[in-house]
Amino acid sequence: MSNEGDISLWKKIVRALQGEDRAEQAAMRESLEEVIEDSERQSPALSDAERVMLSNLLKFGELKLKDVMVPRAAIIAVDETVPMNELVQLFREAQHSRLPLYRETLDDPTGLVHVKDVLALLQDAPGGGYRLPAVPIVGLRRPILFVPPSMRATDLLLKMQTSHTHLALVIDEYGGTDGLVSIEDIIEEIVGDIADEHDDEPIALKQDGDSYVADARLELEDFAEQTGLALAPPAELEEIDTLGGLVVTHLGRVPQRGEIVEGPAGFSFEVLEADPRRVRRLRIRPPRADVIT
Predict the structure, then answer these.
(1) Degrees, nearest 5: CA angle 68-82-121
(2) Domain of 246?
(3) Could you tell me if residue 200 is inside a domain?
(4) How far is it, in rounded angstroms, from Cα 237 to Cα 219?
(5) What would the mean pLDDT of 150-163 be, rounded to a whole number?
(6) Of 191, 218, 236, which marks where a domain is finished?
């Protein structure tokens, strides 16, 4: 497609997202997919990845923080009275760059601590190497944002950009901590999962004895094509695209690592890797009649 055609498409998209009236915005968002489809019929301009991102963007304006937050039970935080060596160990285990700080309980948060502030304290040790001084970690405290679960994700993203604070605690109406949202959580709602240098390259699908090990993002159609196994009747899968989506939909929630889910058609799904927002890796065991030989 020519540059002129690209500009025309993007002008339509911008107009669809710029309505000032809430009802107008909703109507415009509903028509955005038609705008994209019309443009594609005239002259294909968007890749599959771009279409997915635009579809996510279409839904993004209505997302509330309660839809994207890490739930309270999965928050990794640190008491501001712990010694420095325990803080370092927690950073190592969590593999996060920022951790919330609290006083006695998570319902009394006081800020956050950034790993680069810890690294800045490193001192040369006698005989070589480095050591950390035994200073109170409360001295490393930075401000953290406090936001309600009803706040729109778009509003928090703007607030994070203007305040240069990339972590927020979601506080319920009684003042208790309800969840946690990072800037990465918000951006992933548009661009999809963001892998970093700590993430291992996933194996899309591998036969392992009488079961299959699969990336939870594997499309159901691809699984069926590669294994010859139908996970459920087609009518039950109309609104589901991936293995992870099938498990979450069937269970009604995101399962925890190690959990075994008895799925449709006699299939069993063992959750090998998961985080509070999504399933990442699964072991799929077919019904006994379909055991791999």
Answers:
(1) 90
(2) 205-290
(3) no
(4) 11
(5) 92
(6) 191
